[in-house]
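Supplementary material to the annual report.
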Amino acid sequence: MNNAEQIKETIARIFPDVETVICYQQGFDGLHATPYFISIPEQVNKLIWNPLCAQNLTSYLPSIKKKVGIVVKGCDSRTIIQYLQEGLIDRAKVVIIGVPCTGVISVKKVLREIGHQPVVDVVFDDNGNIVVKTQKGEKRLAIADVCPDKCTTCQYPTPLVYDHLIGEPIASNKPKEDVYKDIREFDAKTLEEKRAYWEKEFERCIRCYACRNACPMCICQDSCIAETREPHWISQRLSLQEKFMFHMIHAAHLAGRCVECGECERVCPMDIPVAKLKKKINAEMKELFNYETGVNPDDKPPMYTFNVDEAKIKEHKL
Amino acid sequence: MSGVAGKELRIVGFLCNWCSYGGADTAGVARFKQPTDLRIIRVPCSGRVDPLFVVKALLTGADGVLVSGCHPRDCHYTDGNFYARRRLEMLKRLLPFIGIDEKRFHYTWVSASEGQKWQQVVTDFTNQVHKLGPMHAKKESEG
Amino acid sequence: MRVGVFICHCGNNIAGTVDVARVAAEMRKLPGVVYATNYMYTCSEPGQEEIKQAIKKENLDRIVVAACSPRMHENTFRKTIEKAGLNRYFLEMANIREHISWIGEDKELNTAKAIDAVKMAVAKVMKNKPLYSSSFKVNKRVMVIGGGVAGMQAALDCADGGLDVVLVEKSPSIGGMMARLDKTFPTIDCSICILGPKMVDVAQHEKIKLHAYSEIDEIKGYVGNYQVKVRKKATYVDWTKCTGCGACMEKCPTRNAYDNFNFGVAPTRAINIPFPQAIPKKAKIDPAFCRQFTKGKCGVCAKICPTGAINYEMQDEIVTEDVGAIIVATGYGLFDLDKFPEYGAGRYPDVITGIQYERILNASGPTSGHILRPSDQTEPKTIVFVSCAGSRDKSLGVPYCSNFCCMYIAKQAILTKDHVPDSQSYVFYMDIRSPGKGYDEFTRRAQEDYGVKYIRGRVSRIYPKGKKMVVRGADTLLGTQVEVEADLVVLATAVVSAPGAAGMAEKLHISYDTFGFYVESHPKLRPVETNTSGVFLAGACQGPKDIPASVGQGSAAASKVQALFSKDMLESDPAIAQVNTNACVGCLKCVRTCPFQAIKEEELRNGKKVAKVIETVCAGCGVCTSTCPCGAIQLQHFTDNQLLAEVNAICQG
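Predicted assembly:
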C-alpha cells in the first residue's frame, strides 16, 4: 500500500479550496504515526501513508468550522457517514480523500512482540510484513498477525464515501457472518462468567477517559455526564460500581451510533475491551432494526426514531 | 408470592403518570393484593426512563427493575412509549451480556383502567425476581 | 434544608395496615428532616392547617405528605404550602395508600415499604427547585366532536353561554342514535319529536358552526390553543346550492344503496337525504353505489337538480379550526353479530337487531311504522326479544352490561302490542336492570299490562323451521328447556365502542379502556374530564349510557368548558424541559425525538449552537431528557438528579 505520492498530489490539487487537510506524519519513532494538519501545500512532504496510520482522523471534523480535506480509510469513512446521519457535519465543507486499506497495525501488539524495546527503525517489505529494528535486533512480523481485531472482520476496506479515491477499490474478503462471531461466542458463556469477566476488566479502569476522548461519536466531551454533578450520575469514587456505571453510560450513549473504529480500545492504557459492549449493541441493532451504523447517510440512528409497529420487538411475557 | 418480612427483595418500578401509575392506583382502590417488594418512582412518561436509570438501580442494589408505560399508540405524549420500547428493548438484550439475568428487568404496558393487569404484573414479576434470588447479597462489590 | 414530613392515617385506610407513628419516627432520623408527624386526615381543613402552622413554627422549606395518590391530592397540598408561603413545587407526595396500605395485608411489610416510599419522597423533595408558571391566552372557542344527543346538548349549552362552538359530525346529519329511535322509555314519547327541535336549534344557533359529514384528521396544540384539522368529506353535492328538495333522490336509478341510517333494513338511493328531519337537510352521493362512479355514466341527478348542485368532481376539503377546548361525544357502536353465529343474525332475515326493529317501528322508517317482518313483509304475531346478545359475556370480550337494553326491550315489547294487538312477545333475559326513575315501573307495565312473557335464561340457539324461527333457551327459574316458535326475533345487541374510537383517542391523547371506551379523569369525581387538559367527555363514548345520562353529561361537559373559559389567561405547567446552554453541545438529538416539535436550534451570542425549548409547546414528557447524552436538557420536576435521588434512596438505603 504505497499510495503516499498519489495522496500528496491530490492534496496539492484541493488547495486552496480547503483551508486545512488532516492526514498523518511520523510520530516520535518509526512505529508511531500521528495526525498531521496541513495548512499550506508545501507541508505535504512530511505526509506518510502506511499501515501504521491507524488513527481515526475524522474525530476532528465536528469541531472544525472551516472547509477541510481529510484522508480516510474504509473504516474511518463510516464515522463520516454517521456524522452525516446525525447532522454533525456539513458534507459540503469536507473534501474526502479515500484510500482503500488492507489492514492497519496495532502498535500495542507490535510492542508486545518486541518486548517493549525502544524502536530504532521500521520498514515494510513487499510480502506484507513489518520489520521492526530495535537495539536487540530485528523482528519481522506479518501485518496480518499484528493488526487490530477490527481488521480481521473488516467489511469495508474501501471508503463508503469519498470525493477522491486513491488507487483501486478493494472488496472485502472477510465473511460477513464473522463480524459478530466474537460477540456470539462471548454471549454463550454463563451469566456468572460474563459478570466476572466484566468485573475483572472494569476493575482495572483508571477512569482516565481516554476511550471517551478518542471516540469520534462521543460528542459531549467536556460536558460528559461522567464528570458532572448536574446531573450527578456517578461520583468520582474509584469503586468498581462507578467504573462499571461509566462504561455502561458510554455504551448506552453509543447505542446504534458506534462505528466500530476501535479507537477506544486502541487508546486504552489498561487494555480493557471497551468496544465489546458497543459491538454487542450494534449486533442487536442489526437484528432488531436491520440497522448498521455508518453505511448509509440517509439512515436514521435507531434510538432517535421508531416504528409504530416494531416488526422485531415482541411484548415480553412474565 | 413473597410477603415474608426479611425476605423481601428490592424491586424498583418506573411508572408513567398517566397510565401505569393510574393503573397501580386503580389496583389499590380495588384492593387487589400484591407482593410488597416493589418501590414505585413516578415519571411523566415511559419515554422519560433513560435505560441508564435501570442500569444504575441494578448495579447499586436493586434485584429487579420494572418499567411500565401506556400501551403503544395510547401514550399521553403521543410517541414517548415508542422511544421507550426501543431503548428498553436494547437494554433488555444488553443485560445478559454483562452478566445480569434479563429476567431481572421487565418492561410492559398497563393502562389506568387495568388494575387487575397491574396486580398480575407485580405479582408475576416479583415471583420471577424471587426465583432468581437476591443479586447483591453474594456479590459485595463495594470495597 | 428543613424538610417537614406529614403522614396521613386516612382514618383506617392507611393506619389500619401501616404503622404510621413508626414511619414518622423513622423519618425524624433522616438528615434534613426536622419535623415529622402523623395525622388522622391530612387533607382535612385542620390537617392542612397543621401543615401551614408547622411551616411557620418550624421554618420548614420542603414538605412531604405521605397519604393517598398524588393523582388525588397533589393539587390540594400544593395550594396548602403555597398559602404558607412556599413554592408549590417544594411538595412531594408519597403514595402510601393506593400503592401500599390498600394492597398489602402484612403491617410489618407495609410499614417497611411506607418508610422507603417516604424516604424516596424526602430524597426527591430535597432536590426540588422552585418553579413558576407563566400564563397564556385562551382561545374561547370550543369544538364538539359528535352530533348525537350528548354532543348537541353540549354544543347548545356552550353556545347559549356565549361561546363560539364548532360541531363536527361524521355522518351527513346530526341526531345520532336518538334520531333513529321510534319512542323513548319510560315515557313513550316520540324520539324525533323531542330531538327534532333541538336539532333545529343547533342549525339555527348563530354561535354554532356545523361541519356535517366531516371527520377529524389531526389535533395539535394544548389546552386553550388547539388546532384541529377537519376533513370535510366529499358529498358530490354543493351544499351551498342544495335546497334539500329531494328531487334527485326520487329520480336516482340506483335503488340498492346501503342505508346507514336505517341500518340496512331497506335499501336507499345512491343519492339520498338520510331522513326527513335531517340537519343539514342536504343530499349526498354514495360513490360505492352511484352509477356515475361505478360505471362512469348516468348523470340523472345532475340533470334533475334544479339548482345545479351536483358536482361529481368534488374532493375532500381540509379546514383547520382553532379552539381552546374539545368535547368528545362520539357515541357508541354495536356488537358485530357475525361473531355470534348461533343466533344467526345476518343469515336469517327475521333475526334482527334492536336498532333495526326501532326503524321498523318508526313511522318515518322503511315500513312506515307497520311491523312487517323482513323475509315476507307479513305482520309477525309471535316476537321474541333476546337480551344480552353479546353483553355480559366474557368469552365474547364484552363482560359489561350494555346499560339500556332491558329498558328498550320493554319499550319495544309494549309498542309491539300497541301496533299488533293480537301479538305475543317473549323476552329472554338474564336480569332485569331498571334502576332509573320510573324505569322499574315501566318494565313491570310491560309484563303486567301488556302481557309480555319474561323468561329468565340465555338463548342457546336460533334456527329456522318453515316460516318460523325457533328460539331455544333455558328457563332457569323453572329449570327447564324452552322453545318458542317466533315470527320475528329481536336481539338486544351489545353496545361497544364507536368504530375508530381508539384512533380518535390517540389523536386526542386521551386514554381508552380495553373495550375502547374513553377513560374519565376520576370514576366518581371527575366523570367528564380526561387526563388531557381541555378535553372533555360526553355520552356513550365513555361507556354505554341512555339518553338522560348522555344529555346530563353533555351539559356537564359544557359547564366544565364554561368554567375553563371563565378566565382570559391560563397558567402553564412549569414542569417542562429546560436547557443548560453551558452543557448543551448542540447535537440536537432532542430536536429529533421531541414528540411535539417543541425544541429548536438557537444560536447564542458567542455563536454557539444550542437547543431551545419553546415553552408553550413543551408538554413535559421528558423524552428529550432521556435522549440528551450530556444531561443538558432537563425536564423540570423530573430531572435526572431528582430521579437518581429516588433510585439512590431505594438502592443504597
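The beta strands of chain B are 11-16, 38-43, 64-69, 105-109.
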